[in-house]
Write a structure and sequence with these properties.
By secondary structure, the protein is of the alpha+beta class. The protein folds into four domains: about 90 residues, 3-Layer(aba) Sandwich (Rossmann fold); about 55 residues, ATP-grasp fold, A domain (Dna Ligase, domain 1), CATH 3.30.1490.20; about 120 residues, ATP-grasp fold, B domain (D-amino Acid Aminotransferase, Chain A, domain 1); about 100 residues, Phosphoribosylglycinamide synthetase, C-terminal domain (Glycinamide Ribonucleotide Synthetase, Chain A, domain 4). The protein has 13 helices and 23 strands. The strands form six sheets. It has a six-stranded antiparallel beta sheet. A five-stranded parallel beta sheet has the order 3-2-1-4-5, sandwiched between helices. Strands 6-9-7-8 form a four-stranded antiparallel beta sheet, with helices on both faces. Bound molecules: adenosine monophosphate and glycine (GLY). Glycine (GLY) binds next to loops.
């Protein structure tokens, strides 16, 4: 089977690496991919906005299955196009991708499914936002409706901050059309959990639970990022687990079926575990980044088989290795703002072992063939071990070897685990 993975970040590197171990997969291709993935796949500089170019490529390479990484291509309906050309796809249809494309759509979907989530109002102007704020108390959660590369959520301590967030969205239009409407949402104190399931839109299989660390700085401080590190698997008590299945996952998948949404892929349910029980913060219609980097190595099986089965609407039970995997993100200077690109990375990156390795998220080779930074999240240090602690040690060992001007790392990834498991 020849597989094409779409995307270019650490998540996609994890996917191509997992597929490179597959018995079933004979060729792994990635587009656009990056230099750092060349060890594990053939990379191709295809313009994914050009459907003719993509169609010619998949036909000329006899691609059997496409695995779509980022939401962007799902929202643009690539699944539907690829399927119409006879290619199998792991990833939901454009209809399914609305769950991530629009936070208002997702909230309406949750309401129909009866899934617990924070109380909200839809707002379309600064004035509407400030009036709606009378029904909430601080901190206020302001979320632009559309895609915003993980930057569309503002947690506002007071009305002044809320006004700034609303002005940025509705007047300065920093998110373009994505910010034409927004949600004002009740703040939910609690702890976050990334719960990913593989589904055919009728049945599902849970993946190991992961905990991301979204804030840039240690102790959960600083601006929100796409994720600075993940530990997997997270064990939670049986009662909470069964509540999540019964109150959230089963009704969400049942609603996909009720609405006849063609959904063969992964559904990422972002949860906040509050004193009132688990609540949905968001749906993502793709794998998490960096959750994927830690979840995929845990499968006791062949990802080629799993992606193929799901693309065909077949959900089979999955087995998991009794291991722990951690990921520590090394980010560029100024991330999550505009990252500084082109900084020389100190170490030849072909280092590590099966228990301690690097995935490329935003690197490239310069004209002298040296690795330089080329994105916000630059490298993912992955550690595998017999405990959370061991996996984190293995990840941090690599972090300590790789250096560049302004590199940003959180040193407290996994520190919250003890609190959760006690
Ligand atoms: P989202 O893009 O919806 O996942 O939101 C980004 C981050 O903002 C989440 O991972 C949470 O840390 C935080 N967040 C979003 N909604 C809420 C909420 N209602 N209460 C507290 N924190 C939230
Ligand atoms: N790590 C969070 C996300 O992928 O959205």
């Amino acid at each position: 089977m020849r597989v094409l993975v779409l995307g270019k970040g650490g998540r996609e590197h994890a996917i191509v690496k997992a597929l490179s171990f597959s018995q079933r997969v004979t060729e792994v291709h990635c587009a656009p991919g990056s230099e750092g993935m060349k060890k594990d796949s053939f990379i191709h500089n295809i313009d994914l906005n050009n459907l003719d170019e993509l169609k010619t490529f998949v036909q000329s390479k006899s691609i059997d299955l496409v695995v779509i990484g980022p939401e962007e291509w799902l929202v643009k309906g690539l699944t539907d196009h690829l399927k119409s050309w006879g290619v199998k796809v792991f990833g939901p249809s454009q209809n399914g991708a609305h769950l991530e494309e629009s936070k208002v759509f997702a909230k309406e979907f949750m309401a129909k499914a009866g899934v617990p989530t924070a109380r909200f109002e839809v707002v379309k102007s600064v004035q509407e936002t400030l009036s709606a704020a009378e029904k909430f108390s601080p901190p206020y959660v302001f979320k632009v409706d559309g895609l915003a590369a993980g930057k569309g959520v503002s947690i506002c301590k007071n009305l002044d901050e809320l006004k700034v967030a609303a002005k940025n969205s509705f007047e300065t239009k920093i998110f373009g059309a994505s910010g034409d409407s927004a949600l004002l949402e009740e703040f939910q104190p609690g702890w976050e959990l990334s719960f990913l399931i593989l589904t055919n839109g009728k049945e599902y299989q849970a993946l190991p639970l992961a905990q991301d660390h979204k804030a840039l700085l240690e102790g959960g401080l600083g601006p929100n990022t796409g994720g600075m590190g993940v530990v997997t698997p997270i064990k939670i008590n049986e009662e909470l687990l069964s509540n999540i299945h019964n109150q959230i996952l089963k009704p969400s998948v049942a609603q996909l079926e009720k609405e006849s949404i063609d959904y063969c892929g992964v559904l990422f349910v972002g949860l906040m575990v509050t004193e009132e029980g688990p609540k949905v913060i968001e749906y993502n219609v793709r794998f998490g980044d960096p959750e994927t980097q830690t979840i995929l190595p845990l499968l006791d099986g062949d990802w080629g088989d799993v992606f193929y089965d799901i693309s065909q609407g077949v959900v089979k039970p999955l087995a998991w290795k009794p291991q722990f995997v951690s990921c520590v993100v090394i980010a560029a200077e100024n991330y999550p703002g505009t990252p500084v690109k082109g900084q020389l990375i100190s170490e030849e990156l072909n280092i590590g072992s099966a228990f301690s390795y690097l995935l490329h998220a935003g690197t490239k080779k310069d004209e002298k063939n040296r690795w330089v930074t080329n994105g916000g999240r630059v490298l993912n240090a992955i550690g595998v071990g017999a405990s959370h602690e061991e996996s984190l040690e293995n990840a941090y060992q690599l972090v300590d070897r790789v250096k560049w001007q302004g590199a940003q790392v959180r040193r407290d990834i996994g520190n919250g685990i003890k609190k959760l498991t006690n």
